[in-house]
Amino acid sequence: MLRPRAIVVGGGISGLMASLRIAELGGHVTLLSTLSLHRSGSVTLQEGINAAMDTKKEGDSPERHFQETIRGGDFLAHQPPVKRMCEAAPGLIHMLDRIGVPFHRTEEGWVDFRRLDGSLYHRAAFAGTTTGQHTHHALAGQIRHHESKGGVTLYEGWEFLSAVLDDQLMCRGVVAMNRASMEIRAFKADAVIFCTGGLGMIYGGSTPAILSTGSAAGVLYQQGVYYANGEFIQIHPSTFTGPDKSFLISEAVVSEGGRYYVLRDKEPWYFLEEWYPPYGNLVPRDIATRAILKVVENFHLGIEGEKEVCLDVSHRDPDSLYSRLGGIVETYRKFAGQDPCRGPMRVRPNVHYSMGGLWVDSCRQMTNIPGLFAAGECDYQYHGANCLGGNALLSSLYGGRVAGESAFCYIKGLEKGTDSVDEGYFTREIKKQTEDNQKILQKQGSVNPHRLHQQLGTLMRENVMTIRHNKVLAETDEKLQEMMEQWENNLTMTDVTHWANDELIFARHLRSMLHLARVITLGAFRRNESRGAHYKPECPDRDDNYWLKMTKAKYTEKGPEFSYEEVDTSLMRPCVRDYTTSGVLV
Amino acid sequence: MKEVYFKIKRCLQRGRDSYWEEFVIPYRSEMTVVTALREIQKNPVNARGQKTTPVVWECSCLEEVCGACSMIINGRARQACSAFVARLEQPILLEPLSKFPLVRDLKVDRLEMSQNLRRVKSWIPVDGTHDVGPGPHQSVRHQQRVYQLSRCTHCGCCLEACPQVNPHNDFVGAYVISQVRWLNRLPSGALNAEDRVDALMASGGLSECSQAQNCVKVCPKGLPLAESIIEMQKSATLRLFKRSLGIS
Ligand SMILES: Cc1cc2nc3c(=O)[nH]c(=O)nc-3n(C[C@H](O)[C@H](O)[C@H](O)COP(=O)(O)OP(=O)(O)OC[C@H]3O[C@@H](n4cnc5c(N)ncnc54)[C@H](O)[C@@H]3O)c2cc1C
To answer: Which CATH number describes the domain made up of B3-108?
Structure first.
């Protein structure tokens, strides 16, 4: 039999893991990535990866990890896959350790762990504060190895344009464009895995990389893949605004002794420690963010009247800070111009992560389109209504692995391989995308795509952030529709060349962003409760009677059509999510 | 300061003539070269008030870990995202890296950098990704040293600065040698250290280095590249010696 052939789109941590698994099983992977692998968003990942190894004998276990993850996500994740992920985590740390991730060590020479948000245990393995870079480089090495053995073919610099679906609505490959020559071609495979990352750029200058536009997810949504839980966008409590983006100051700082405070009557007030004694500065991000907003907006205690608070580690020994937080210390010095070893950092909440994503089934990571899989930040599976620090990387690795394995099995079970599928599907899709490009290049209206994007970012930051109001959300959706209209009829392309035309690619991304922005906004509008990162003062409580369900958005010409899916809570009964006490976990 | 002057070396397509275009960008405090290039995207008009195409360059993380936005800024190879305009002499000259095939404007094709890593077997061969238990013990001190070495961002600045990277030879470059040193120092990587050293002893490897030490000066992460080259040269000498005695 022919070697099973799969495509993986995206060269971040999830894409590398999926590719690695397929190659290891004996399949062949075509790995497409819009930039070179090393430029993926994953390299910016800071604080670590969770795995309950309990090396400090605190009583941690995969079961505890599972419970804290479910509670951290306010009970909105299907529980069995989360449980499997937590159980697999220690094995994944061993793998990373073996392939060369330079994890910090204990004195005895074992992997060291730090405590992160929403947890009472030291559970995150870390390599300074550049865990992502090291994990990515080690995995990329493994990919190179398989490439040298013929199991992987890399296409770096290829931008995914659309999936190729046959008349049974099965996925048979993708159409992609070379970012330099603009050649458009079809890639055939029996299964395609999307690992295209998050969508922070919908909010303009947020913490994720500039590529995180959700472009591929937006295209797939328009092709019929359900988009789930879009309204759950994580606003991270501590970021600082740099010239071109917002920079993350991760919980690694808190785990090394960092404390949030504001000045009240000239005295530092450690509000999180006062309000949430057992977790203190390590409450889950949604809670920390709302607490900061309360302090700066209701109590007007922000630094110099700004919406900022202090995060201070300067009382710690600079040498140890440098060895354990090197990346963050360097970044803050360079981009904020101050030394965190000498005084408090000024931080404010900003968009960081998308819990929502492409809908996938809970065993195989397959979307509603057969043969089309998703993993990593672009799926919705593991975090429910809020993601805990160190779990995003874990879910990228684990989801990637599951997707790789199940795509391989799926291919083995196929009756009719892609080779026997009519060539017409591919040529038609190439033609469609070529014409789409031509149509975009002819746009000579008056709105520059980058300016329109700026408006989108401002709109979403002002109206669809931490605190949400129905009236505002409804107005936002109307504005988004106006922007879509602007995109369609009034966009102007200043670059109409046919070589390395980044503006054209950006215009395509912008279209995706607009579609997903509507999914986020309307999903938030409809969900009349507060849960995890989604908070509405009009209905400030969680409503399990009505809203213990996932949002699923389906694309239609008129806009997203919503349906809801029951959450599988078979392993842990939803209880009150309260971080003011250490809580009794059942 | 109200405005910033830029002179940007442009070329619309590989193989076509290059030309300089000037831009005047309103100054914003804390602005970087990337801020300016993004302003041009929003309003592609040159200093003479003529409409032009937006400047093409590559960027991703904007915090100096992805290595994408390398270019030559006032004569020096560096990352655009951390090049603060207030600290640069004007007009600010932007040019693409010259040691790589040009794509367009400030964007070059650095794919050969991955190929070079493949040449030296830059990976740790493992039996599989399944769980076979923890990796080897490592001391804190050892981990710290290794950690420093593994912070390369594949930005290409060391290649740009190196006189030995030129059309007449196929030198793999300092970052590759540093990567081998990193892998060989890892307890799990040490098992195959000799394979990588052998690869570095082939043509285009260690012997091409002329000790100019420019690489260390431009590395944005401050990697000890010259030291790595010396250490790998020692490993190579030892390897030769062992081979001559027939013990490998
Ligand atoms: C600053 C920061 C710090 C973080 N720290 C942590 C942490 O400490 N712990 C943790 O668990 N999580 C952390 N996260 C979250 C975590 O980094 C991400 O969720 C995770 O890396 C996502 O990996 P990924 O593989 O899904 O996507 P990415 O790494 O974003 O990769 C996406 C890939 O898809 C490719 N791609 C995208 N669109 C296209 C297209 N149209 N065509 C072709 N290719 C395309 C890109 O080139 C890229 O290779 C952090 C995130 C940020 C921004």
So the answer is: 3.10.20.30
The CATH number of the structural domain formed by B111-244 is: 1.10.1060.10
Task: Please report the domains of chain A, with CATH numbers, ordered by start residue.
Answer: 241-350 (3.90.700.10), 425-548 (1.20.58.100)
pLDDT, tens digit (0-9, with 9 covering 90-100), for A148-165: 999 999 999 999 999 999
Residue A353 Cβ inside 6 Å of ligand 1? The answer reads yes
A247: closest CA among A372, A110, A112, A348?
Answer: A348
* A400 ligand 1 Cβ < 6 A: no
Q: Using CB atoms, which residue from A141, A209, A497 is nearest to B61?
A: A209
Question: A309 near A295, Cβ under 8 Å?
Answer: yes
**A405 contact B CB<8A:** no
User: What are the structural domain ranges in chain B?
Assistant: 3-108, 111-244
**Residue A5 annotated as catalytic:** no
Best of A13, A46, A244 to disrupt the B interface (most B CBs within 10 Å) is A244
pLDDT tens digits for range B113-123:
999 999 999 99
In contact, B36 and B85? CB cutoff 8 Å: yes
What is the C-alpha separation between A152 and A48, in angstroms, rounded? 28
ipTM: 0.96
- Please report the beta strands in A130-231, taking only residues with DSSP state E, as ranges in sequence order: 152-156, 158-165, 171-178, 184-188, 191-194, 227-228
Compute the distance between CA of residue A351 and CA of residue A409 in angstroms, rounded to an integer: 37
Cα–Cα distance for residue pair B32/B39, rounded to 1 Å: 11
